[in-house]
User: What shape does this take?
Amino acid sequence: MNPIIRVVLAGLLALTAQAAFAHGTAEPAVASFEADVTSLPPLPPGEGNTYRGNAQVAAFGRALFNQTCARCHGVDAVSKNLPGPDLTRLDRACRPIADAEVRARCMADNDAFFLDSVQNGKVRVGVSHMPAWKGVLSPQLIWTLRTFLESKAPARRPD
Assistant: This one.
């Protein structure tokens, strides 16, 4: 390879690495969050999002989402031209599954992924793309977010 091309490529690589690491660590929008959960029904026992389908919880989750997540994922989860992905599409692979048992397992996998992502954040190649919310948002509050996002997702087509 031509020595000049090597120098140019090395310089571009160094600039790219510097820009990638300049972001540092993403921090939650708030260091601590107090929410009045007295209006919420108690979190039913079980694995995953046991609030699924509860309109009251979805309304609470909407308000929480707009206070904590909208900066990256958009107000009311409308994420056009924002750094965060469209979270209403999280279950897009599960919705068309006709078999209820298989669809439930798919949703359970997505529940686990969502809880882990919110609690532990997202770091790729040493760059923090999403802050960890563990210690800021309780699992109960995280499930209200998930319930809100599910309420925004396109409805499943009838069988």
